[in-house]
UniProtKB/TrEMBL annotation:
Keyword terms of this UniProt record: Cytoplasm, DNA damage, DNA repair, Nucleus
Subunit-structure text: Belongs to the multisubunit FA complex composed of FANCA, FANCB, FANCC, FANCE, FANCF, FANCG, FANCL/PHF9 and FANCM. This complex may also include HSP70.
Pfam families per UniProt: Fanconi_C
BP-aspect Gene Ontology terms: cellular response to oxidative stress; interstrand cross-link repair; nucleotide-excision repair
This protein's name: Fanconi anemia group C protein homolog
Length: 558
C-alpha cells in the first residue's frame, strides 16, 4: 500500500511536468507527444481517482497541493478531453475536490472554480459570444450545434479523402500527403468518438501514390486497439486495409486471439468459433496476403506446441470459418487457390476444399481414396533430401481434418477388407513424421484392431472388456503415439456408431480414460465430432445425444 502511494506521487510529478510542457498541445511536436501518451495518462487519472475518492477534499489539497493545476491543464487540453474515457474520469476527479459544506470563503471559491472547469468539460468546446448568439438565433443549443458541426466536418473530410482516392494521378485535385498525414495524427485521440468513424474509415481506405506510408503509425496502432477492444465498429473492408497497411496490427490481433483462447478455461469448439469470428480474421483472410500471415502464425503455434491437438482443432475451426466467409463473399474464387496454399498441389487443395455436403454420400469413399492418392504421391514421391513437402502436405490436410474423421467412419462401416488408401490416410494424419516403414506398421496394427471391431459389431453381446482387448492390438505403450491415438479414435467412433456401442460406452470410456491426458484426448474427440456433425448437418440424434452426455460427464471430471 505504501509502495502504491510512492508510485502515485512519482507519477503525479511526471504528469504535472508533462502537462506543463504540452501547454494545450500548441505545436506539432507536443501534439505528437500528447497522442503517444494519452492511454498512459488516462490510466494515471484512473489511479488518481481511486486515491482521491478515499480522501476528503481537505486531505486531497494537503497531500496534492497542486492538484488543481494538474487537473486544469488536463481539462484545457483538447486531445485529452477527446480521448476515450478521459473526460469522464476528469469529472470524477474534480467531483472529489468539491466541499459539500464549505466552511470558509476559500473553500467556496474552490467550489466555484471547480464548477467552472466542469462546465467547460461538459460543453467540450469554448464558444465565442457571437457564435453562441448565432446558434441561439437558429434555435440550436450550442452543444447541439457543435455536435452537428463536428459530424458535418467529418463527413466533408471523408468525402474529400474518397475523391482523393479516386482522382489517382490528377495532382491538382489530390489532397496533399502532408495534410493526410496530419489528419491521421489529429484522429488519434478522437478515434473512439462515434461521429469520427467515417473519417477513420476514409483514411484507412484512401491509398496515396507515395512510395512510403503517409499515415502515422500511432494512428494504425490506436485504430487496431480500438477494434480489438470493441470501442469502434468498422466495416471489414476498412479492417482489411488496416492490416494490409500495418502488419504489426495484424500480428497483434492474432496474438490477442491466442491470449483469449489460452486464458479461457478449456473451450468447446463452438466457443472457439465465436472468438475467431468475432476477431474478423476469417473474413479478412479472404485476402490472400492476410491469410498467409495468419496461416504462418498458426504454423508457428503448431511447431512450438509439437502438434498439440488443441492447436490442430483451432486451425480446423478457423479454416471452417474462412471457407464460409469465402463462399459468402463470392461463389467463385477471386484468387487462385495457389495464392492461399503456395507450397502444395493445387489439385489437392481443390479436392480438400470441397464441401462434403456437395458430394453424394455414395461417392465419399471414392473421394477419400482420391485424397489419399494425391497425398501419398506428394509425400512419398519427394526428391531425395526434400523435407518440406511432407510437412506442407500434412499442414494442408489438417486444415480440413473432417476428411480424416470421415475416413475413420468409412472404415468402421466397411464390411469388406479395409481399403489400404484409407488406412494410409489416417496413419499419415496421426503420424506425419513417421517414415514409410513405421507408417506401414501402424497400418498393420490398425487393420488388426478393425478386424476385432468388425467381429464385435456382428456379436449379439458386447462388453467393455472386449473393447479393451481389441485396443491392446497396438504395441505402443505411449498414449500419444500415432498408432495409439488412431486406435483410440476408432474405438470411440465404434462406440458412437455401432448398434451395441451405446450400451457399453460409459464403461468402455472409464477403462480407456485412465490418465488425464487420455481423458482430454477423448473430450477433444467428442467435441470435434459434434462440431463436425453440426457443420455437415448430419442427423444423428441417438449418437449425438450420447456424445453430448459423455462430453458433459467427462468435463465434470477434469
Amino acid at each position: 500500500m505504501a509502495q502504491d502511494s510512492v508510485d502515485l506521487s512519482c507519477d503525479y510529478q511526471f504528469w504535472l511536468q508533462k502537462l506543463s510542457v504540452w501547454d494545450q498541445a500548441s505545436t506539432l511536436e507536443t501534439q505528437q507527444d500528447t497522442c503517444l501518451h494519452l492511454a498512459q495518462f488516462q490510466e494515471f487519472l484512473r489511479k488518481m481517482y481511486e486515491a482521491l475518492k478515499e480522501m476528503d477534499s481537505n486531505t486531497v489539497i494537503e497531500r496534492f497541493p497542486t492538484i488543481g493545476q494538474l487537473l486544469a491543464k488536463a481539462c484545457w487540453n483538447p486531445f485529452i478531453l477527446a480521448y476515450d474515457e478521459s473526460q469522464k474520469i476528469l469529472i470524477w476527479c474534480l467531483c472529489c475536490l468539491i466541499n459539500k459544506e464549505p466552511q470558509n470563503s476559500g473553500q467556496s471559491k474552490l467550489n466555484y472554480w471547480i464548477q467552472g472547469l466542469l462546465s467547460h468539460i461538459l460543453s467540450a468546446l469554448r464558444f465565442d459570444k457571437e457564435v453562441a448568439l448565432f446558434t441561439q438565433g437558429l434555435g440550436y443549443a450550442p452543444i447541439d450545434y457543435y455536435a452537428g458541426l463536428l459530424k458535418n466536418m467529418v463527413l466533408s473530410l471523408a468525402s474529400e479523402l474518397r475523391e482523393n482516392h479516386l482522382n489517382g494521378f490528377n495532382t491538382q485535385r489530390r489532397m496533399a500527403p502532408e495534410r493526410v498525414a496530419s489528419l491521421s495524427r489529429v484522429c488519434v485521440p478522437l478515434i473512439t468518438l462515434p461521429d469520427v468513424d467515417p473519417l477513420v474509415e476514409a483514411l484507412l481506405v484512401c491509398h496515396g501514390h507515395e512510395p512510403q506510408e503517409i499515415l502515422q503509425q500511432e494512428f494504425f496502432e490506436a485504430v487496431n486497439e480500438a477494434v480489438l477492444l470493441k470501442k469502434i465498429s468498422l466495416p471489414v473492408s476498412a479492417v482489411v486495409c488496416l492490416w494490409l497497411r500495418h502488419l504489426p496490427s495484424l500480428e497483434k490481433t492474432m496474438l490477442h486471439l491466442f491470449e483469449k483462447l489460452i486464458s479461457s478455461e478449456r473451450n468447446c469448439l463452438r466457443r472457439i468459433e465465436c472468438f475467431i469470428k468475432d476477431s474478423l480474421l476469417p473474413q479478412a483472410a479472404c485476402h490472400p496476403a492476410i491469410f498467409r500471415v495468419v496461416d504462418e502464425m498458426f504454423r508457428c503455434a503448431l511447431l512450438e506446441t509439437d502438434g498439440a491437438p488443441e492447436v490442430i482443432a483451432t486451425i480446423q475451426v478457423f479454416t471452417q470459418c474462412f471457407v464460409e466467409a469465402l463462399e459468402k463473399e463470392n461463389k467463385q474464387l477471386r484468387f487462385a487457390l495457389k495464392t492461399y496454399f503456395p507450397y502444395t498441389s493445387p489439385s489437392l487443395a481443390t479436392v480438400l476444399l470441397q464441401d462434403p455436403q456437395d458430394i453424394p454420400q455414395g461417392q465419399w469413399l471414392q473421394t477419400l481414396k482420391h485424397i489419399s492418392e494425391l497425398l501419398r504421391k506428394a509425400v512419398e514421391d519427394q526428391t531425395h533430401g526434400s523435407c518440406r513437402g511432407p510437412f506442407e502436405s500434412w499442414f494442408l490436410f489438417i486444415h480440413f481434418g473432417g476428411w480424416a474423421e470421415m475416413a475413420a467412419e468409412q472404415l468402421l462401416m466397411s464390411a469388406a477388407e479395409p481399403p489400404t488408401a484409407l488406412l494410409w490416410l489416417l496413419a499419415f494424419y496421426y503420424g506425419p513424421c513417421d517414415g514409410r516403414q513405421q507408417r506401414t506398421q501402424t497400418m498393420v496394427q490398425v487393420k488388426a484392431v478393425l478386424g476385432h471391431l468388425l467381429a464385435m459389431s456382428r456379436s449379439t453381446t458386447l462388453s467393455a472388456q472386449d473393447l479393451q482387448t481389441a485396443a491392446r492390438q497396438g504395441t505402443d505403450t505411449d498414449p500419444r503415439a500415432p498408432a495409439q491415438q488412431l486406435i483410440r479414435h476408432l474405438l470411440l467412433n465404434f462406440l458412437l456408431w455401432a448398434p451395441g456401442g451405446h450400451m457399453i460406452a460409459r464403461d468402455a470410456i472409464t477403462l480407456m480414460a485412465h490418465t488425464a491426458e487420455i481423458t482430454h484426448d477423448i473430450i477433444g474427440f467428442l467435441d470435434q465430432t459434434l462440431y463436425r456433425w453440426d457443420c455437415l448437418g448430419i442427423e444423428s440424434p441417438r449418437s449425438g445425444k450420447l456424445a453430448r452426455e459423455l462430453l458433459k460427464e467427462l468435463r465434470t471430471q477434469v
